[in-house]
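Late entry, evening session. Most of the bench is empty. Finally got around to the prediction I had been postponing all week. Sequence below, unchanged from the version circulated by S.P.
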Amino acid sequence: MKDVYITRISKFLPNNPISNDEMEGILGQINGKPSRAKRVVLRNNGIKQRYYAINSQGKITHSNAELTQEAIAKLFDDSFTENSMELLCCGTSSPDQLLPSHAAMVHGLLANKNMEINSAAGICCAGMSSLKFGFLSVKSGNSNNAVCTGSERSSTRIQANMFNEEAVSLSSLEEQPIVAFKKEFLRWMLSDGAGAMLLENKKNETGISLKIDWMEAYSYAHELETCMYSGGEKLDDGSIKPWTEYNSKQWLEESIFSVKQDVKILEKHIIDKGVESLELVLKKHDKDSADIDYFLPHLSSNFFAEKLKNKIKERGLQIPESSWFTNLDRVGNVGSASIYLMLEELMYSGRLKKGDKIMLSVPESGRFSYAYAHLTVH
């Protein structure tokens, strides 16, 4: 087995940062009315700015594949070119189309050479699944290097025009033309961007590298119902009725393709299962939580930060509070790309020294999955 090092990390955040006051002007107002939920959601999530692949005139500027290609391009120089790549792994929850795969579309934009590709589906954990495929490939000797990505283009799914048909339908039924909170909640949570990592079986000759010591993932779908979903509707028994079982008229009138979240289930389970899985991974690798120098938890909202810290302490784990690192307030919740954006910022911050231990922690509320990685600075 080979050692695997993250030798480069890059990011691409489209257009100018968008403040909280600017959001609704770009995304639009559902039924022409200001959102009732916006202020409450923004107050709780702590996000001050985010990025959209939409300009101030409402024009789409980048596809998800283009965001990803832009991030990957920043990995290249004279010593590692696009033709040096042996494996491309791409994770996202918002591919531009159902078929072909996201990785195939990114590879098409790279237009470099014949190579192996892999697409990881899911929500926030998709970026970690992409990273793990690359990690295992390099570790096993299947490839000498891998480029792994996490990317999202959520903005086009949360524009007002995606919900207006539903509002009109509700009005015709003489109901309040207010889209359910489970759908509108995420309009004020999600943002766009992409991150890319270069994995190699040798460390950098100069500067630091991040050795991937191990990666683990856990799913609780066997015991918990769906919480975050798109392309279907949740029924009273907790099951999901897929979009293929609705007619095309219903797709619009019921906003079937909008991203929805059952916030009651989210709050009930996301922290408890997160700490439970953290305990499992630390025990499996005989890791003392007090030895973590940098803890990078992907947080969808700062609302959960204190709850997570308190639960960790309650369970007797000793992760130093000074080790916590996040950039949620500055880049927003970019789903599968968030962990890439956090690690990129930390790697080039000048703060890391050789021997430092880094723990990556990524939860996903789809049906409650958790992914972890342990890194050592070399």
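Two things to note before I forget:
The mean pLDDT is 94.
The chain has two domains: 5-206, 213-377.
Will write this up properly tomorrow.
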